[in-house]
Automatic annotation (TrEMBL):
Keywords: Copper. This is DNA-binding FrmR family transcriptional regulator. Coiled coil: none annotated. Belongs to the CsoR family. The lineage of its organism: Bacteria, Bacillati, Actinomycetota, Actinomycetes, Micromonosporales.
Length: 105
């Protein structure tokens, strides 16, 4: 089951930290998308439940790796830029909230 985010995404920021690696990030997300399609196919073909669960775990791990990478980029770029500008409080709060969501998931 997918969790639905209740918060509106914040998009009124400058270039994001991941912008330089956007092609690689999109490639990873496309591979994860393929994993999810594979899961659908496995269920459609009545694949053994433990094999499906194993693939779900792999897809979840792949998404978590993407999330951690984005968080690292946020800290290295957005938070650092805000600190240089004199007030990183909002960016640190965003990072803390994101970490809390990742830990809960």
């Amino acid at each position: 089951m997918l969790a639905v985010m209740s918060e509106e995404p914040t998009t009124n920021h400058g270039p994001h930290g991941y912008s330089g690696d956007k092609a690689a990030l999109l490639g990873r997300l496309r591979r994860i998308e393929g994993q999810i399609r594979g899961l659908q196919r496995m269920v459609d073909e009545d694949t053994y439940c433990i094999d499906v669960l194993t693939q779900i775990s792999a897809a979840k791990s792949a998404l978590q790796a993407v999330a951690v990478g984005l968080l690292e980029d946020h800290l290295a770029h957005c938070v650092v830029d805000a600190a240089r500008a004199g007030d990183p409080t909002a960016k640190v709060k965003e990072a803390s909230d994101a970490i809390a969501r990742l830990v809960r998931s």
